[in-house]
Amino acid sequence: MASWFYASEGKQQGPYAEGQFRDLIAQGIVRADTLVWSEGMAGWQKAAEIPGLLGSAAGAPPIIPAGGPPMTGGGALAADFSPFGLLGRSIVFVIGMLLVIPAPWVTVWFYRYVTSNIRVPGRPNFGFAGQPMDIWWALMGNALLTYAGATGVSYAPLVATVINAFFAWVVLRWIVANLTSNGERLPLSFQGSAIGYVGWYLLMMISTVTIIGWAWVLAYWMRWICRNTEGTRREIAFNASGWQLLWRTIVFSLACSLIIPIPWMLRWYGNWYVSQFALVDRATVAGRAF
């Protein structure tokens, strides 16, 4: 039985069973210009554009083949984090990592909040299905390595950085493999090599010496990650330039130094960063020069 979704005031509503959705049409809540989506559709469409939908208010909405929409077409991702929701969870996340043992639990809790506030074209109810004990050793190890500098060993921070980068690669693969839509895992996987990821990680750290160069390194690193994420007919693209990353980060940092604007600046930066990821046809990406 098909489930239906509709967009209202920029937010996704649903899922609704056929009978419930029929009632929404009859009540005038879902109108001709309302964007709707159901399993099997390539993307969101106006209700009037779907043959037989509005005329079927007295009966069941037309059945659309199940199995999820084919990954064609695309669009930018969008996020709508609440200022204090994101700030509060970020603080708890940092504290949990510093305490090491809670790291797996606060990580899963934080990622579930983040993904639940991200809208992906053609993938309603975006979410995260990872469990705390999936890779507890990597999450706790990553947290523990933050104390490497306190060992007093001169080379400990360098060794910790390399190991941290490897753990971050493990975590990234875990995150991608556990992304969901409507409670079902998406067929995604990250195929970038550990050596490649560690290389980008170290280059990112070295580039901070240049004060501004890190922004361009980050932009190309994100594109490398996108190109190595597989499992969909659409390509994941990262559109932000180094300059855009730089000036927004400067504004974010300066505003946060005033303390009071932190919640709103965190929301502003987080929403913008998510919006720089987009799903596009692979043919389009193939012709784009990065």
TrEMBL record:
The keyword Transmembrane applies. This is DUF4339 domain-containing protein. It comes from Bradyrhizobium campsiandrae. Residues 4-53 form the GYF domain. Keywords: Membrane, Transmembrane, Transmembrane helix. The chain crosses the membrane at residues 91-111, 162-180, 200-224, 245-266. Pfam families: GYF_2 (PF14237).
